[in-house]
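Table S2 (continued). Query chain:
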Amino acid sequence: GLTGGPRRRQLWIWAAYTSQAKTMCAKQFTYANVMRGRRGLFVSLEEDREDIEYALYARHSHVYGKPLVIEEIRNGKLAADRVEVLHKVVKDLEAVDLTIWIPGRVTIGDIQRRVSALQMVKPLDFVVIDYLQLVDPETWKRDAHEAMAEIMRDCKRLARQEDIPVLALHQMS
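Corresponding output:
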């Protein structure tokens, strides 16, 4: 599955315990796909836009030699030659077709409506949802297991109805 790239109508759930690099892997997946010309939506319920963008900048900076460090980008503590690299990286990544959405409270239905709107402009090639525990169920559920089961079913419906692969991150507890 992963080596051949994302397949339409598939739901992938990457599950791991806290601090096991799920988000980092999802950003790498996103970077690899947009650099292949694929159009994506990255829905983040945990990080802000800058964190996602800085990770993509740092990842892409290897093209220009020694990679940039996220903390140096964030703190603005780059030497003049590294600032020049950052400008090149930002320009390169402006050309990729990636929508980063930081919605706050959201249901899978809300995500599906956003996906549908984006699909009307140009088909998406993938969606990343980071992460499922912060997605609200469509209807009130008595317990967390029942709510998560509904959210996962809704993710599968999203992948099938919108004809796109969906990568959802899940934190195990």
